[in-house]
Amino acid sequence: MLAIFMTAAFVSHAQVRVGMNVILGNHAPNSREARLMHQEEIAHPNITDAMHHIQAAMASLRNAPSTFNGHKARAQADLQHSYESLRRALYYRLYDDRH
User: Fold this and answer.
1) How far is 45 from 64, CA to CA, in rounded Å?
2) Rounded to whole angstroms, what are the CA distances from 18 to 45, 52, 79?
3) Residue 34 and residue 82: Cα distance in Å, rounded?
4) pLDDT tens, position by position, for the chain (99 residues)?
5) Of 19, 24, 45, 96, whose Cβ has the fewest other Cβ atoms within 10 Å?
6) Which residues contact 50 (CB under 8 A, 6 or more apart)?
7) Distance CA 25, CA 21 (A)
């Protein structure tokens, strides 16, 4: 009986509930995915706030002049990577990410 319960728990955890393309922001979530993602955002407001701050920083950089000898582009790439890492962290319970 315990083995059946443990197997069921493992299968439900490994089940993909939100696709990685949605988690990374490449595709819009459907209503079920949006609801699950919103629950994680409410449960983890500090990560959600950090993501909003990164988005604001990316917008500011887009509007800045391009006279920084490549450093602006590097900063933009670093911010994008940080944003994606935070999205993976926030939504990891919704996807079995083994990378």
Assistant:
1) 29
2) 20, 21, 23
3) 21
4) 544 444 444 444 446 689 999 998 999 999 999 999 999 999 999 999 999 999 999 999 999 998 899 999 999 999 999 999 999 999 999 986 555
5) 45
6) 86
7) 6
